[in-house]
Amino acid sequence: MLKLQTISAEWETCTALSAVQDALYVLNGKWKLPIIVALSQGNKRFNELQKTVKGIAAKVLSHELKELELNGFVLRKVYTSTPVTIEYELTDYSNTLGSVINSLAEWGTMHREKIRSQLRQNAGQHAPAPAVAE
Asked: Which among 32, 80, 93, 110 is most buried, taking Cβ atoms within 10 Å?
């Protein structure tokens, strides 16, 4: 009986680990989630997107957009105007990431404050804090 519980627990852990690895495989890298967040503010053309996601190279943005499109998160719309206009927008499927992105944003804010607090504490222990103009 104990072995079955252990096997069951190991299987659940393995399944959870596999699920996390699948999610990370699809959303890997430092650019995919920022691109999704930028597009959550509305449809954007390539140059607008590159300006919004600061620091991303055009080649990298192009590659990431193709991968996001292949995985069903981004839709590429081509308008046959003169000149041809291409816009990127999120699919309905990308909305399934809403709670994940919100949780990451909350955790990121909490973590940033924790690190800042530690830096302030460490600075106070080793040297007097610099005067701050108010």
From this structure: 32
- Residue 110 CA to residue 117 CA, distance in Å, equals 11
**CA separation for the pair 97, 40 (Å, rounded):** 11
Tens of pLDDT along 30-58? 999 999 999 999 999 999 999 999 999 99
Domain 7-91 class, CATH top level: mainly alpha
CB contact at 8 A, 71 and 26:
yes
pTM: 0.75
Beta bridge partners of 75: 89
Q: Are 87 and 44 in contact, with CB atoms under 8 Å apart? A: yes
State how far the Cα of 85 lies from the Cα of 79, in Å rounded to an integer. Answer: 5
Tell me: the pLDDT tens digits for 108-129? 999 999 999 999 888 877 655 5
What is the domain partition of the chain in residue ranges? Answer: 7-91
